[in-house]
Design brief:
α3 (107-120) packs parallel to α11, α6 (191-197) packs across α7 (214-226) and α10 packs parallel to α11. The chain has helices at residues 11-23, 51-54, 107-120, 144-157, 171-177, 191-197, 214-226, 254-261, 270-274, 277-289, 316-332, and strands spanning 2-5, 27-32, 37-42, 59-63, 83-85, 88-90, 96-100, 124-126, 160-164, 180-183, 204-207, 232-236, 266-268, 294-298. The strands form three sheets. It has an eight-stranded parallel sheet. It has a four-stranded antiparallel sheet with strand order 2-3-1-4, with helices on one face. The protein is α/β, with parallel strands linked by helices. Bound molecules: phosphoenolpyruvate and manganese (II) ion.
Length: 337
Amino acid sequence: MIIVMESKATEADVQYVVKRVEELGLKAHLSKGVERTIIGVIGDERLIQKEQLSLLPYVENVIPILKPYKLASRDFKPLDSVIDVAGVKIGGTEVVVIAGPCSVETEEQVITTAQTVKAAGAKLLRGGAYKPRTSPYSFQGLGEDGLKLLARAREKTGLGIVTEVMESVEVDLVAEYADLVQVGARNMQNTKLLRSLSKVKKPVLLKRNFSATLNEFLMSAEYLLSGGNDQVILCERGIRTFVEYTRNTLDLNVVPAIKQLSHLPIIVDPSHGTGRHDLIIPMSRAAIAAGADGLIVEVHPKPAEAYSDGEQSLTPSAFQQLMKEVKSVAAAIGRTT
Ligand code: PEP
Ligand code: MN
């Protein structure tokens, strides 16, 4: 349930209610708005009677949240969350583009890509050092050496880094290097990994699993939020359907649906969403028009030589074109780039 405090409630009044919630064996999460504070109450609500909270001083209302996700819901936090990633704000008026190679391969590859995507207007650099590959015979990533190369690219360009973590034991190491830690589609419901990431002081990019319902997607976000990490950005990256002409089906419906149900930012990955470099620009335009807060796009200086996902990587010049088109669509709906 959520407790809506009266607008005249002071910090001490809020803390008094928080203390009572905790004494009742539940957890309190604060959401401070401009007008008033909302307290999200998490735990087994059967332990309490509504009146034990509604009669406390300066409590305006106690409302049950009927959805299975609580902290991720708009009922808990009506205003959009804006997540700061190395000084770049995701979820505000600016549409943020994250770009870079699928995998970190060599120093030259990652630094050249970082420089070219930055020059074209990307705000953050992506690159996988730990790769969740379908085949055990495919390139699995450079591991910590890859993280070091990303850190070098950050030093050279000033771009913050987005990179994936696959296992709980590697969370601290990856979080040390990354500015935004990615949970890949395959791990969206790895609840142990989510719990580890909920204890980390870095924002998390949570990619939707190929077969996850919207509820399951938001419940995974709830693991991060309820564990103590409220810096969560969602990512739609395509789902499995019967179509075979694209790698996945980019479910853009989920963008406005998430905006209705949740305060969390959502970005779109048109590279994995389509699997085809020739569809990335049109689907990026569509994603921004649908209300996405940004994009994460694969770019490679020589896609034909990429160790992974070359067929869905843009060349630097195609990426420049993407940025031009994204700028126009963003401007048409009152957003900046
Ligand atoms: C990736 O971003 O390179 C990746 C593997 O993404 P996903 O988890 O969406 O497949
Ligand atoms: Mn990839």
